[in-house]
Amino acid sequence: MPTQLNRMRVGKACVVESFRQARLYVTLAMQGNKEQEVVSWTKNISKKGEFVRKDSTFRNVVTADGSSGFKAEAGRYHLYVSYACPWAHRTLILRKLKGLEKVISYDCVDWLLLSDVGWEFKEHQDTINNCRYLKDIYFKAKPVPVLWDKATKTIVNNESSEIIRMLNSEFNAYCPTVEQSNLDFYPADLRSKIDAINEWIYNDINNGVYKSGFATSQEAYDKAVLQLFKSLDKVRVINYPYNISYGKVYFLRNALTQVEDILSKSRYLMGNQFTEADIRLFATLVRFDMVYHQHFKCNKKRIIDYPNMWNYIREIYQIPGVADTVNMEHIRNHYMQSHTSINPFRIVSIGPDLDFMAPHDRDRFSN
Ligand SMILES: N[C@@H](CCC(=O)N[C@@H](CS)C(=O)NCC(=O)O)C(=O)O
Fold first, then answer.
1. Topology classification of domain 188-319
2. How far is the CA of 142 from the centre of ligand 1 (A)?
3. Which Gene3D superfamilies does this one have (predicted)?
């Protein structure tokens, strides 16, 4: 099914382009993929009231040599993103830091995400396919980010963790400077450690805030929020990601405390090296105090209460180019106006004043 969908082309002509596709449409409709149920989070709740994120559907890759069928070329690929979405945010940061602004174009959807129509293009138009809704690009499904191939008019990939790896390594020939081309956020010698830390940070923090916010039972909420904040009742084993070799370390603490502890001893999650693990964590932490704390009920503590994390976010925010990828208006408006089950009157709260440009102390780790 994903492969057929992947071949699917956009626009009206594509919808009924062939009998096979029309048949696929009917099949999907019969499976319950009705037009009215466009936004997936409304359908992703288990019987226990837990939010269960579905795997992304489109998983092709762009390669520098074109061996995958999608060759890295300047001007060929396009990103569909939302400034509000932490997953899409990762891709914008990579595009910026690698200097790929002229190589990969992008369009941003409006911040409002309604369950019947999904993401919509409003002030920012869809400059490639001229669609009004992101679902028209997908034909049926809907999340951002989307990596679109203008040449074959196909979705290449819609999984942010994979898109950022493509931007990291496959477009180096098109980076404007040698420094940008040499920038490697997933270096070979750190890959297993990055994978290990990504895994628990994804489960407990990146997706943990959603599991807390979208829970529809007290039990599901307690489980997610405890994982995020309170002491874990199980022992966790991970590879300690410091330069100093501690080998395997047993952790009894919660995810945010663990991160705070790591960042009290090293500048980044991987010691002195800024990697994709930091970019992925940043996209969640930068939204935390503004939306997750109140809107998703992750309110035991704020990030500003953790001195190391708070300084760490400010350092990343101040890396040239990163601030351009953070749009707080979209972030606030999106969460508070789109999730009507959480915030029925869609009132956008005033939010704390956060000064991401205030000086940080992370230079204390410089050699
Ligand atoms: N695993 C995906 C998650 C993407 C995702 O859930 N995006 C949200 C926005 S934050 C979305 O578009 N949700 C609407 C939907 O799923 O219909 C990734 O990392 O790329």
1. Glutathione S-transferase Yfyf (Class Pi); Chain A, domain 2 (1.20.1050)
2. 8
3. 1.20.1050.10, Glutaredoxin
